[in-house]
Amino acid sequence: MSYSLFIDDERDPPNDGREWRIARSLDQVKTCLSIHGAPVFVSFDHDLGDGEPTGHDIAKAMVDGDLGERSDSGFAIGFHPKFTYYVHSQNPVGKSNIEGLLGNYLRHKNSN
Q1: Half-sphere exposure of 53 (CA within 13 A, CB side)
Q2: What is the number of domains present in the chain?
Q3: What is the DSSP letter of 50?
Q4: Using 50, 70 and 90 to split pLDDT, how confident is the model at 1?
Q5: Regarding beta strands 84-87 and 41-44, do their DSSP bridges make them parallel or antiparallel, or are they unpaired?
Q6: Stretch 39-50: mean pLDDT, rounded?
Q7: Structure pTM?
Q8: Which residues form the domain of 65?
């Protein structure tokens, strides 16, 4: 099943015809991945509330899961073969960090 995942603690996804699942926290992302499998597309926010793991933390957990470094449910499934992403965060440093992490990892993964 192909679906898109929108990670944001406040906003809702655009009404663009995609089949969106919404996660407001790292725990909700983990649950969504456990139930629905790997999303084909993820739209990331960086800041997910005071004291909460960030979108960068979630992206890192997804990379670690794809590398086989996480055995916990959800993240261990890795990336969908046609995975793409967008970072909609208003935090420019956070946005850059997520884009750098995922861009570098996916380039490396796809070059092998």
Answers
A1: 17
A2: 1
A3: T
A4: low
A5: parallel
A6: 97
A7: 0.95
A8: 4-111
Residue whose tokens read 């663009």 = 16
Partnered with residue 86 across adjacent β-strands are: 43
Name the E strands within the chain.
Answer: 4-7, 20-23, 41-44, 84-87
5: amino acid identity, one letter: L
DSSP secondary-structure letter at 99? Answer: H
Predicted pLDDT of residue 70: 84
Nearest to 58 by CA among 68, 48, 49, 73: 48
Helices (H) and strands (E) in the chain, counts: 3, 4
CATH of the domain at 46: 3.40.50
Burial track 63-80 (b if 16+ CB lie within 10 A, e otherwise): bbbbeeebeeebbbbbbe
Between the alpha carbon of residue 6 and those of residues 16, 21, 81, the distances in Å are 12, 6, 18
| Strand 4-7 versus strand 20-23 pairing type | parallel
